[in-house]
Design brief:
By secondary structure, the protein is mainly alpha-helical. Helices cover 39% and strands 9% of the residues. The strands form 2 sheets. It has a two-stranded parallel ribbon. It has a two-stranded antiparallel sheet with strand order 3-4.
Amino acid sequence: MQLEKNYQKSGVRFLSLSADSKAAVETFVGLYDVSWPSAFGVPKETINAFGALNPDPASSKIVRPTLYVVGRDGRIVYSDMHARYQHKPSTEVYRELKAAIDAALVQPTAEDNSLPSASAG
């Protein structure tokens, strides 16, 4: 994904989590040319904690494709809310994701807030 490459120098990292097997994840990564780390065998409880596990018992093995942007303070500042299930155009998701990353990059960190201020002396 070009977006991931555009932000690498800014310290932005992409990561995929899946409860699926290594073989299934490798197939997906190869099919969609995913260039970032993609974890497999992640416990469903962990995926559910991020709100990405489909709660429908009939499809309990399906994980919703969800994008998150985590701010510099460690909080989620954006989620596409399962865009593929909302049928949003990819261009709209791209614009929203880019805007969220840009906003997260300008958020102060805890370290930024604890720096002593310069005083006139």
